[in-house]
Amino acid sequence: MKVIIRFMIPVLAGNLLQLTYMIADIRIVGGFIGDEALAAVGATTVIFSLYMGFFMGTANGFAILTSQKFGAGKPEEVRVTFAAALMLGVCISLILIGVTVAALDPILVFLKVPEELMEDAGMYIEIVLLGLIITMIYDVLLASARAVGDSRTPLLILILSVVLNIAGDLFFLGVLHTGVWGAAAATAVSQVIAAAVCWVFLYKKYEFFRIKIKDFRAINCSMVKNMLAGGISMGLMSSLISIGSLILQTAINGLGDSYIVAQTAARRLTEAMMSVLIAVGQTMATYCGQNFGAGRKDRIKEGLKAGYIITGIWCVAVIAAVYLLSENLVILITGSSDLLMIHEAARYLKIDCLLYILVAVIMIQRNSLQGMGDRITPLVSSGIEMTGKIILTYTIVPVLEYTGVILVEPIVWIVMIIPLIIQTRKVV
Fold first, then answer.
1. For a 10 Å CB count at each end of the chain, is N or C smaller?
2. How many CB atoms lie within 10 A of CB 12?
3. How far apart are CA 416 and CA 347, in angstroms?
4. CA triplet 225, 374, 299: central angle to 5 degrees?
């Protein structure tokens, strides 16, 4: 347990830093430009999350080959794989973002963004999408740093990025009074600066990040196929959840501004409360991978038990906090006095938190199986999650409205956990 906790702490710190910005962003936007602007941001946040998840997963997939070359002691090939990751990352992001921006109006209609929010929502997500080209480069840099054993630099750069994001929000919205587009611009500018700092730092610190034209010329078809296979599969894994959430968002957007803001606030608080579960899951991927390679299934079993105990204690603490403080937490991060919004966001948290223990098991087992080399079962489970969200969005949400939205994820958790439990029992 001590080993798992020590490894988990820096991972958790990074996750919490990202969530700190997301929550601060809601508070700043809601505080400076009001509930309608916050609803415009919330109505399209799922698109941003979809691409963020896909790009991060893709970058991590690219970095697998980089880590293999580094472990083999081949610095020249590390440079080539780094160059290939940058090239592929930029190409993929340009294609996806270009297509999305070109089809943005139909996408907003599909998401059922209210007419009065359409202009602000479109402006916000367009600026954010254009900035995601830099985000992809940023993700490749951080993933490559971790691939050569440097976990400190990504954490420091993440701290810088969060500080710049919050400072940018305060400057654009509080000083310049820009409106919704300022929140998007703050995100884009912070990513540009953080990526530039990261590049300079890695360039100076590591010889194999000092890429030259010849490194791009050394990229071959076999390498590209290998990196695309790993990158796209991991990117798809990361984005399957967001695809289901995107469909669910279409139903939420049709319920009105109060429900959009309620969902935005509730989701940010949910992400904060699940941060420990996610960090334990990420830790178990490395822990199980190492011990599986060493043939130590006994340690894997002990590690799983430790993970269940840690997350179980956390889930009990979360339930207590939600039932005591949920309304106050919603007010704190939104700055809103909309009683309907506050009540519905708190209701969402009070119902869903009772089944967070299922999420704990899902996170632990899905990541553990990946660490032990099983890519199929976690992908099947994620596919069930996406499919379940889509089916329930079109069945129970039209009947139960926001109550249906609240129940979608707990129902999906109950189903998607089944293949994970079966496979974990077989392997361990």
1. N
2. 18
3. 24
4. 130
d(CA 378, CA 373): 10
Q: Dihedral angle at the C-alpha atoms of 367, 81, 101, 267, nearest 10 degrees?
A: 20
Report DSSP letters for 98-160, one per residue: HHHHHTHHHHHHHTT--GGGHHHHHHHHHHHHHHHHHHHHHHHHHHHHHHTT--HHHHHHHHH
Within 8 A by CB and 6+ apart from 15, the residues are 275, 278, 279
Among positive and negative, which fits the CA dihedral 290, 58, 221, 78?
negative
Interatomic CA distance for residues 268 and 253, integer angstroms? 17
Amino acid identity at 394 = Y
d(CA 50, CA 241): 8
pLDDT in tens, the chain (428 residues): 888 887 778 778 777 776 676 666 666 666 666 666 667 666 666 777 778 778 877 887 787 777 767 767 777 888 888 889 989 999 998 998 888 888 888 888 777 777 777 777 777 777 777 777 888 888 888 878 877 767 677 778 878 888 888 888 788 877 777 777 777 788 778 878 888 888 888 888 888 788 888 888 888 888 888 888 777 777 776 676 667 777 777 788 778 778 888 887 888 888 888 888 988 887 787 777 767 767 788 889 999 999 999 999 999 999 999 999 999 989 887 777 888 889 999 999 999 999 999 999 998 998 888 767 677 788 888 888 888 988 998 899 889 988 998 999 999 999 999 999 999 999 88
pTM to 2 decimals? Answer: 0.69
Distance CA 29, CA 21 (A): 12
- Which two three-digit tokens encode residue 132? 């995601």
Could you tell me the two tokens for 205? Answer: 């610190």
CA distances from 339 to 24, 31, 261 (A): 21, 16, 12
> Is 108 within 8 Å of 27 (Cβ atoms)?
no
